[in-house]
Write a structure and sequence with these properties.
Elements: H1 2-13, E1 22-25, E2 28-33, E3 36-38, E4 48-51, H2 52-57, H3 62-71, H4 73-83, H5 97-102, H6 111-119, E5 126-127, E6 136-137, E7 143-145, E8 151-152, H7 156-171
Helix pairs in contact: 1-3, 1-4, 1-7
Length: 186
């Protein structure tokens, strides 16, 4: 879940990539320190140039780490924390490519934080702080509790591009979430 939130959305927002950008799937030198390159991909090899949307669809590990490296771990940490409400990141333990690019965070992220962050892709980039009510009215049906104000976490174009890229994870020929396409939401 971290790859689209930390790497892809921020890279689209900063105009570093778009839906069909070519990005090289290759090892990052000194990724593990002491000269060892990485990260490894779950499928065991590197593909060379791939489309950004395909990299997300296939859940390639190298591409989001390379994007986080290009944008900076501090910038990525700030983006997650301040724009997308991922507030339980550790500002020491999680300041690395693995935590921020792949999601191997020190404390993890909560389901609620993840859901609220992903909602920006369907809300034209607006982030709403999670709430757990449906409707609160008084005895005269006057609304007495409203949803909190939103802030623009991503621009509308970025949210739309990310929405389409994430569809490929489920509906793409090699999407790693393809098992979900058989489930109904009704």
């Amino acid at each position: 879940t971290m790859k689209p939130l930390a790497a892809y959305s921020q890279a689209v927002q900063k105009n570093l990539i778009h839906y069909s950008s070519l990005i090289e799937d290759k090892a990052i030198p000194n990724y593990f320190g002491k000269g060892k390159a990485g990260p490894n991909n779950w499928y065991g090899y590197y593909m060379g140039n791939v489309r950004a949307s395909y990299a997300l669809e296939k859940s390639i590990n190298t591409v989001p780490c390379a994007l986080v490296k290009q944008m900076g771990v501090e910038s990525t940490f700030y983006h997650l924390n301040n724009n997308l409400g991922i507030t339980n990141l550790d500002d020491v333990e999680d300041m690395n490519l693995s935590s921020l690019g792949l999601g191997g965070t020190y404390k993890g992220i909560t389901t609620t934080q993840s859901a609220a962050a992903f909602a920006v892709f369907g809300n034209l980039g607006k982030y709403y702080q999670p709430t757990t009510f449906t409707l609160v009215t008084d005895q005269h049906d006057n609304v007495i509790l409203k949803q909190k104000d939103s802030h623009q976490a991503l621009d509308e174009n970025t949210a739309t591009v990310m929405n389409y890229m994430l569809r490929e994870v489920v509906y793409g020929d090699e999407g790693t979430g393809s098992l979900a396409k058989g489930y109904s939401t009704t």
